[in-house]
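anyone else get weird line breaks when pasting these?? whatever heres mine. first is seq + tokens for prot A
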Amino acid sequence: MASDTDTRNPDRIGALLRRSLAELRALVTSRIFRRIFLLHMLALVWLVAGIFLIAENRRGLVQAKMDSLSAQAGLIANLLVETAVEAAPEPRLDREAAREVLRRLSRIYVPEETRALIYDHEAQLIADSRLIAGAVGVEELPPPGEAGLGEAAGGLVQAMWSGIQNVARDESEREALRRSALDEARLAMQEGRAVRGVRRGPSGELIVSVTLPIQPIQAVVGAVTFESFDLDALIAAERRAILPYIGFAALVTFLSALGLTVYIAWPIRRLADKAREVRLAGGRRVPIPRLANRKDEIGHLGRAFADMTTALYDRLDAIESFAADVSHEIKNPLTSIRSAAEVLPKAPDAERRDKLIRVIQHDVKRLDRLVTDISNASRLDAELARDDLALIDLDRFLRDLIRGYDPERTGARGVRVRVEGEPSPVLVHAHEGPIGRVFLNLVDNAITFSPEGGEVRVRIERAPLGRGTAATRPPVRVSVEDEGPGIPPDNLETIFQRFYTQRPQGSAFGSHSGLGLSICRQIVDAHGGRIWAENRRGRGGGVAGARFVVELPRAGR
């Protein structure tokens, strides 16, 4: 037993790890994760690019470097004017003296990361601090042959980066980048002024340089260039200092994207899987996660999806129940017709045959009435969904409905129909046809159960404040009362079921389909209201008749 347990546990742990890795891989490779991550990285790339541009184009740093180089170049130029310029017959720069001055000063005033150059009046280089100090430069050359793919890609990236950097520079800075040290010396001697700027060296490195003319009085006898090569090193140091922050920002971005994917994509995937199960379930109920702990849009989606699925299942159940009820109700008259038709040829006399024919005719009419009511009930949802709601003055609507009532329905038995209530506008949003059918069905039922000479009262009133949808806007209540025998207490709710019939004494069997009150409830529910039945009590406490009450939401404020 112990060995079996030990064997199963590693397998279970391994299966759990594989399933977790598969879910993690599915999350990382999901489209929403890629989009969120790319959006985050795009913002990060722009931020990093801005940091690089700011770090590389800090004018304060370059300005300070130029000021320092100008001071050093000015010192060398002044010493050259004092010690290396021959005045007769015309001002001329003594090459040997200039080299000696630079040799002595380079040990103290020319650091390793800088360089001093001296040009004569013909822009010929006569002294170089690095050559004078015997400095040797070592640079690794690329291997012979064509550049590899990596080098080509690096060159392309460098070219693109240089283009981005040039966008942030003005025209004077771009012009300075294109100059050489010789160009700066010629420009300084031609214009007799200092030339300052940042230019690129032969290897693409950035060089901060300052060139001053050597000018004893008015004549220019040469130029001194002082340049610094440590700008790239300073920028690289700044970039290295930023790299840990960039790495941390990238990690935070990745975790944020992963968290958002788990927070968003995972519940959506669960809902999608459940939707697939619903499609393949074949009518079997599949529980849908409601995501009750989510208060955001995902939670709203989960609850709406669950409610929609529940409503769909309820509708399927209702359709199945309706089909079963229809089958049962249609089977009764068909059975009666078949029995009468089988007995008809065997009838011994004409009187018996006429009776059987009347039975068949009665059942055919009953069947026709059933089919008509069933057709009306099945089209009701489509009719309510297709037609727009209208603003109805319910008081006037009911008075017009009762005024146009067919007197032949009540004249034979002397039943009167009366509308009570204040003749003031009582506004509701409703479908005129279906809501009119509700009140006609209720009045018809009341007339059917009323005694001869009785009265049916239709009363319009406001519901109590506690029963309304809002404390300041109670619903409209319409009650239809009769003076009949009332409704058994056990049947106050069952009378609204489909095909339920309870007819008064003397009423012909099968003259009603039992769908009227069911259709009434369906229409009232579609309007956001409610309908119920209750018994009226007389003075002695006994049942004085039935009352059907309809409540509808009031329109307006």
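and prot B, same format (seq, then tokens)
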Amino acid sequence: MSGYGDYDDSDEYDDEELEEIKRRKLEELRRQAEAQRRQQEEAAKREAELMAILRAILDPEALNRINNLKLVKPELADAAVQTIISLVQAGRLVPPVNDDTVKNILIQLDSRSRREYEIKFKWK
């Protein structure tokens, strides 16, 4: 029979399948959100630990310079922090590291990363 009043079991199965798909999708989204939240918490924890280390080995002016640099050139700031920590661990720098020392490290790191460009003009 193909009237409007006929009941079709396939509609019920389709609805159940759709509900199952929705449930799975929601569960997957929850898992992804939880994983992202955990990653953010771990990153915040690592950043807090790093800041505690920096407070212990840098004088306030040097720490301020590093924090300001993170806003403008985060890659350079990260490289400087890793270099400073390595030098302190190796005994080549003695805490508290002052701002002038940090400036010198930044100059050396920045000069390594700069590219030299040569521009040639052809006059006609």
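btw re prot B: The two ends are 87 Å apart (CA to CA). The domain at 12-113 is CATH 1.10.8.140 (Helicase, Ruva Protein; domain 3).
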